[in-house]
């Protein structure tokens, strides 16, 4: 069964003067937290005998930086794909992005934003998690093919946040 990791970007500061929300960068604490989460994810993938096949992120500064820090902990990764639709996606929009993952993908990581991430997690697993904290990662097992993703078609296998990991 396919595995999907949903991650909310790590903690970000305010937009720079004259900048937009999409320009927000990680704080020092956010970078440190993303490193802890990368180590957690690396351990989890190793324990499960999995490797990431697909990486999709919104492309805004804070998700790109989160991915950069994660990459240091995870080692060699497939080429990430920036998808601008993630930035302001609805829950349905995020589900459409996941449904479009290639059939041969066994394990995917999507780095995005609230409220769509917590909405997608609740819709797929019938497990509301509010709020989905910055830097948090949900590990889901998908029943069936990516293209057949529907409400309730995933099982939450685990969740971790920077605060839980200390």
Summarize the structure.
With 166 residues, the chain is of the alpha/beta class. It has five helices and six strands; from the N terminus they run E-H-E-H-E-H-E-H-E-E-H. The protein has helices at 28-48, 61-74, 91-99, 116-125, 162-165, and strands at residues 3-8, 54-57, 81-82, 107-112, 137-142, 154-160.
Which descriptors apply to this entry?
166 residues, globular, 6 strands, 6-stranded mixed β-sheet, alpha/beta, 35% helix
What does this structure look like?
- With 166 residues, the protein is of the alpha/beta class.
- The chain is 35% helix and 19% strand.
- The chain has helices at 28-48, 61-74, 91-99, 116-125, 162-165; strands at 3-8, 54-57, 81-82, 107-112, 137-142, 154-160.
- It has a six-stranded mixed beta sheet, sandwiched between helices.
- Strand 2, helix 2 and strand 3 form a beta-alpha-beta unit.
- Helix 1 packs across helix 2 and helix 3 (91-99) packs across helix 4.
- The chain starts with a strand and ends with a helix.
């Amino acid at each position: 069964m396919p595995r999907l990791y949903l991650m909310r970007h790590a903690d970000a500061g305010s937009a720079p003067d004259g900048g937009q929300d999409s320009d927000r960068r990680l704080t020092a604490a956010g970078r440190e937290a993303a490193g802890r989460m990368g180590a957690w994810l690396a351990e989890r993938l190793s324990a499960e005998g999995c490797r990431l096949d697909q990486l999709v992120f919104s492309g805004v500064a804070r998700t790109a930086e989160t991915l950069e820090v994660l990459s240091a902990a995870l080692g060699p990764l497939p080429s990430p794909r920036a998808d601008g639709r993630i930035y302001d996606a609805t829950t349905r929009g995020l589900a459409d992005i996941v449904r479009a993952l290639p059939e041969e993908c066994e394990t995917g990581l999507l780095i995005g934003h609230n409220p769509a991430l917590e909405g997608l997690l609740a819709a797929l697993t019938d497990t509301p998690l509010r709020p989905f904290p910055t830097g948090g990662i949900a590990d889901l097992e998908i029943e069936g093919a990516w293209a057949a993703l529907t409400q309730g078609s995933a099982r939450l296998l685990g969740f971790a946040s920077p605060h839980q990991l200390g």
